[in-house]
Amino acid sequence: MTAQHILFFMAAIALCGNGMAQNPGAGDDIPREWTLEQCLELSSRNNPYVKNARLDIESAKARKNEALWEYFPTVGLRGMGYYAQNPLVTITVNDILGNSDAAWDIRNGIVDAAGELGVDYEYNSFRKGYSAGVVATQPLFAGGRIVSGNRLASVGVEAARLQSLMKERDTDIEIEKKYWTVVALQEKMTTLVAGKRLLDTLYRDVIAGLDAGLVSESDVSEVMVKQKELASAEVTLRGALKLARLDIFHAIGVSCSYRLLDSLTFTGDLGELIPPRECGNLRPSESSYESQLLEASLEAKRLEKKMAEGEYLPEVGIGVSYGYGNIQGRFNGENFNGVAFASVKIPLTGLGKMASRSRRYQNEVTKIANEKEYLDSQLELRRQKLWLDFETAYNQAEVARYAGKVSSDALFRAERNHKAGRATLAELLEAELNYRRAQEEFIDRCIDYRTAMTAVRLL
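Now predict its structure.
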């Protein structure tokens, strides 16, 4: 990682660590050593997107329970009342006998008799009334929409589960990358500190040689310049390491005191490289989460087609009603009564519309199937590429490891030859610089290896 990369990294995550840096008293009781497993566990519990994805599963299950209730009867209370200014039904003698002379004579006789007896000579009804009861209806067949709706809800639960697993996987990949970045910066700090110790020893040697007249002042100045360069690099690297630790703590939901950052250690052997040929169990699965989600999307579209077609299929239902009321509004008209009924709905004019709708939904199903076929091939290509990246990263890391060993041997010989007077100070400093660059290159390649290995393992 070059100085430019470090500065870019510091600028990119400064906002993440700024909030915790302003609270130096928080998080004093956190562990001093952190493992990858600890970070992944805390991320799984605290990451808001992972928690929201799990809530989506619960919502999908709730929708499935809602759809399940469609199998059961619907029961409800029903009530009504009315009042008319005039009776809705009025029956007189003329309504029965007509308007003949004989009918009028009978009517007049009834009117006179009714007046003497004090009764109505007309029949009036339905001027006011009320009713209240319980109604239960049970659908027997609803065009297959109830069955298809429940299956669609089950597919929704499975889709939510897959999306939650994908979110957890992506979060784990992000956390592992942040974790190994911290470990890499720690390794670079160790290499840099070792280089500083070498230069400190070399500085004491050249000072002693200057006093003895064996080296020139320019040699001393050259060593001092290298010391200043390493000191400046240490300041930059230490700042990047602090921000990297703050970044991962922010990602896993842990509050850490800024003054404790230098005392924390993220454990892990960055240089432990497992050959890909020994990682056959890490090969990407033929059925990834994305592939399963595509299959769920295709099944959902098929079920939507069935539900759309069901709107124009016959519907059959039965029901019962039992209640109390007085609809006619007459004296002693109140009573309890029960009614059983059945209903059949057979749409006729909607058949043409159903055929058109069916073709439209079938086109949507075919489109999803076409996309699935293409994306499945893309997923297979990605699986192969991930494995190729893993093999390439391993080979490059091994090359960098060998280069580091060569530079280490060269530094050892340069130190020995310099002490014996067979190598100049410039040669020794160049050997030290090459060694440090080789170690940093190996660390960067190890990061690539870890990233590729995580992608193969989780994707």
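The longest helix spans residues 351-419.
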